[in-house]
From TrEMBL:
It holds the Pfam family EcsC. This is EcsC family protein. The lineage of its organism: Bacteria, Bacillati, Bacillota, Bacilli, Bacillales. InterPro entries: EcsC (IPR024787).
Length: 245
């Protein structure tokens, strides 16, 4: 109870951050990006779309990522500490990967999309285990995808994802969940994700500065994903504990 009180302000600050509107600068950048998307060759859209579709299908089918057994009988404080250690590890991995692909110009810059996606998803699978959830279950895999959308999407999708996480016990059945994701609009999904990361990733392809930008940007993205994952699991665990007391 004492630790819950300590982190309550963090959870409130996170909720405000997630539910507020983007700044005017961000909204203006989004309008510009929408126009840019209209002139980008469809082949490039397809590369990113297929990377994200493959990632999501790999999560749902369960054939792509290693699933560790859920860790039991640990306090929320211990889980948070272990989660933060994991995030630090994955931030270093992502920074190294970003520096390597950033140094290679446009072709390796394109390769960074699936590589970075894989790192992000591996982190989320490890965090599920850390917080005591079995990622072999379809509903836990959808929770992982919801955290991903929470971190990297438009204002509207981000708020919808937050509402789902805040009331996870009211989520869809396994059959409905699977059907929903099989019929997902993959191009819209990838556009939201790519729009979120587009400008820094374009800078990553600039010769001379790509390696520095790639390392910094990837480190930042993993940090942001980790923050959202920790608070999503905190919110879920606290609500489940409150329902059983």
């Amino acid at each position: 109870m004492e630790y819950r009180s300590e982190i309550s302000e963090e959870l409130e600050a996170w909720e405000r951050k997630i539910t507020r509107k983007s700044s005017m600068v961000s909204r203006s950048a989004k309008r510009i990006q929408n126009r840019i998307n209209g002139v980008i060759p469809e082949r490039l859209h397809s590369i990113v779309t297929n990377s994200i579709k493959t990632m999501v299908q790999g999560v749902l089918v369960g054939s792509t990522y290693t699933v560790h057994p859920p860790k039991k009988n640990r306090s929320l404080q211990v889980r948070d500490q272990q989660a933060k250690e994991l995030i630090r590890k994955y931030k270093r991995i992502a920074a190294t990967e970003g520096a390597g692909t950033g140094a290679g110009g446009i072709l390796l810059g394109l390769a960074d999309f699936p590589l970075l996606l894989s790192i992000k998803m591996k982190l989320l699978f490890d965090l599920a285990s850390t917080y005591g959830y079995d990622a072999k279950k379809i509903e836990e895999r959808v929770f992982i995808l919801t955290i991903f959308q929470l971190a990297f999407s438009s204002d509207d999708t981000r708020r919808k994802s937050y509402r789902k996480i805040s009331s996870w016990d009211e989520s869809l059945s396994q059959i409905e969940v699977r059907k929903k994701y099989e019929e997902h609009d993959w191009k819209t999904f990838q556009l939201e994700y790519r729009d979120y990361i587009d400008l820094p990733k374009l800078l990553q392809m600039v010769p001379g500065v790509g390696a520095i930008v790639g390392a910094y940007v990837n480190y930042h993205f993993l940090d942001w994903l980790g923050e959202n994952a920790i608070n999503a699991y905190r919110t879920r665990m606290i609500k489940e504990e409150n329902q059983t007391t």
